[in-house]
Amino acid sequence: MGNMNNKEGFFNRLKEGLSKTRKGFVKNVDEMIFGEKILSRNLFDDLEETLIMADLGPAFTTELVEEMKYRAGRKELDRPDALKKILKDHMREILRDSELPLEIPRDELYTIMVLGVNGTGKTTTIGKMAHQFKKAGYSVILVAGDTFRAAAIEQLEIWSQRVNVPLIKQKMGADPSAVAYDAVHAAKSRKANVIIIDTAGRLHTQTNLMEELKKLKRIVGREHEGAPHETLLVLDATTGQNAISQAKMFNEEIGITGLVLTKLDGTAKGGIVVRIAKEMSIPIRYIGIGEKIDDLRIFNSEEFVNALFA
Description:
The chain is an alpha/beta fold and 310 residues long. It has 2 domains: 2-96, Up-down Bundle (Four Helix Bundle (Hemerythrin (Met), subunit A)), CATH 1.20.120; 110-300, P-loop containing nucleotide triphosphate hydrolases (Rossmann fold). The chain has helices at residues 2-17, 19-34, 41-53, 58-73, 81-96, 122-135, 150-163, 176-190, 209-223, 241-253, 272-280, 301-309, and strands spanning 110-115, 140-144, 167-168, 194-198, 230-236, 258-262, 284-288, 296-298. The chain is elongated.
């Protein structure tokens, strides 16, 4: 019974986290659809505009509206609420392809390199992931690879103490690759399971961020075969279109194997998740729906759509 309540509480928390998007998007769709007795061209135009405004993206929107028009033409949409069902089903279908949680082996070293522009919630995401892994019984080491900002090292230190996992760091200004090198060797000697490496989100002076990150990735791979096993990009959902541009840029330059979308509770444009799934074909590993330590969620497409339309 406790478990049921827990599950329900978990779902309600997700619902709460997506409430701005629900109010801004689902409510609009509802008002538009349920006021109508017949499915007119105007309705489709309005719907198209609402979907684009919610950041679901032009590709998804066009495909969906075409599908709806086609079905309406074949008289398959006798009731306006059938439109909403198509919308939900279509969303689920696209998001299901992006749902792929990390699978971390128990008996070998698994390295995660975490990228993202400053301000996306990268360090917080790392802390929350460390908390989850530790709870699941993995031994975790954090690595302060953003050596360009004292604040980044301090923030990671606070998380390492809070979650009670070791942190490998050097002084500010040290070479990030040297810190990562130390970390891989420390992890091997301590027989740790998971290393999570924080990285810079922006560099001062002439140093090129992408070159710095490529070097870091190379060094980690040289010291441990197959590493980094996951190159995770953290995106701030509130930045909408900008998040897509960042994802494309990091993916072209570095190669991204997974995404985290943070701050979904802070935006009415949670539809960005659908857009990213449609346009990026990179697994969405986690979504962030609030400040609490358990508010970093493994992405589940079914739960996400149900919570959005609940």
